């Protein structure tokens, strides 16, 4: 991001202090002249002393933390060029102005190579020297202010990202008696900005930050802001005087509530409680970020910690019928009905919106649904349903119901693709499901149309896939199952034949006898008699084996 958009409203302590300067010349009279001829204080400079060669100058520079050196080039011992070389290696931030009585271009060229800020000739023009020093002082102060701002930003970023584990003390340049954290982000990020070109999005970020800082100008608050995420701006507000919470809220409403990056971009935020101990900053950052999730419940630009407490107090969410939704999705997947899948997902999100589910809660609900869905599909015979799903979507990117819904729809589309690609016989699992349904109800007068209705498919389609999978029509399959059960009951119980007929689903005795004879070649009584004879004999193989006619 362009440096001019960083934090112009912050004014770290120390930015207005005088710049420390050292005068270096091997002639004492020149040192004295330079020191007292110019009003250095007016230029924002404090002369900490004089040195008479480069070696002495280095010692004083390190002792006093000198920021600017005014030095002659030619001196006995370590001359000015060597001094500049040493400073470049050991103290590169120190600015140097060279003064020489010789109009020697080679000296000037060497001085420039060594990073000397300016080069003046003796006798020095006072106005020219003052102008040069004034420019350098401004640059030093700007760099100093920028360095302190970066120090504060780095600390704030560490607190926001790593919490109390960051462990660093707040910078001494961060002044204030009361503080507050505000977390802001752009609404509908995934839908509007996720695919935006980097340059265009950076322009929006700059307008976002610049708008915030402009609104703070002239007010009682100072701020430092860092982008903890491309769509999460953490702002530390500092006040030099204590104020009541209502006053803070008014400042927030007037300052942050009117930030407008343009182009219909909507910004919302969460504001922590006011605090006085900077050691609480990590906790307050987390508090402000948590409030962002509540914006699906309330359209206000800035939500406060008090609102968060009130909104979550005694909150109860209505339950959602996951089982029914999974059944609907399973049916839609088998029919390859992507439109029905989409409608089912829309119904899920409509329920969540109307019920006041927060986005993390929506995701937890969906994760439970997805796990059950995949389990049902596997039990139904589907294979190859494992794929590298993303974890919980980034809440700063998918910060709306619509954004989160796109993730769910992508999951559903991928499942459908895998089912189409890796599922075994497309009818296998639905027929298996039908078989389980039939086993539970074969004793009733069950019809194929009833099974099809339960499976939510047409009777003709059910009849087709059932025959393809089992090799038998529905009626034939039901008769075989019932006759097998009847044979078992005839052999193991003393129940009368008409009672057995009723137990296996035949309400008409004569029809049961007719079907039984068709499948076994004998009546039920004959079958029971043969079983009794068999058991009385040596206990050989099934005497009825081979007596049943071949099945179609």
CATH topology of the largest domain: Alpha-Beta Plaits
The 3D shape can be described as elongated
CA gyration radius, whole angstroms:
42 Å
Instruction: Return the CATH class of the largest domain.
Output: Alpha Beta
The stretches of 5 or more residues where confidence is low (pLDDT under 50) are: 1-15, 540-552
- How many structural domains in the coordinates? 4
Subcellular location: Cytoplasm
Domain HTH araC/xylS-type: 432-530
InterPro entries: CheY-like_superfamily, Homeodomain-like_sf, HptR, HTH_AraC, HTH_AraC-typ_CS, Sig_transdc_resp-reg_receiver, Tscrpt_reg_AraC-type_HTH
Domain Response regulatory: 20-137
Set out the fold topology.
Elements: E1 19-24, H1 28-37, E2 45-51, H2 54-64, E3 68-72, H3 80-90, E4 95-100, H4 105-113, E5 118-121, H5 126-162, E6 178-186, H6 189-192, H7 198-216, E7 221-229, E8 232-239, H8 245-255, E9 267-271, H9 281-292, E10 302-304, H10 305-312, H11 322-334, H12 338-355, H13 359-379, H14 401-422, H15 428-441, H16 448-455, H17 459-470, H18 474-492, H19 497-503, H20 509-520, H21 524-536
Parallel strand pairs: 1-2, 1-3, 3-4, 4-5, 9-10
Antiparallel strand pairs: 6-8, 6-9, 7-8
Helix pairs in contact: 2-3, 5-9, 11-12, 11-13, 12-14, 16-17, 18-21
Main location: cytoplasm
Keywords: Cytoplasm, DNA-binding, Phosphoprotein, Transcription, Transcription regulation, Two-component regulatory system
Pfam family, one: Response_reg
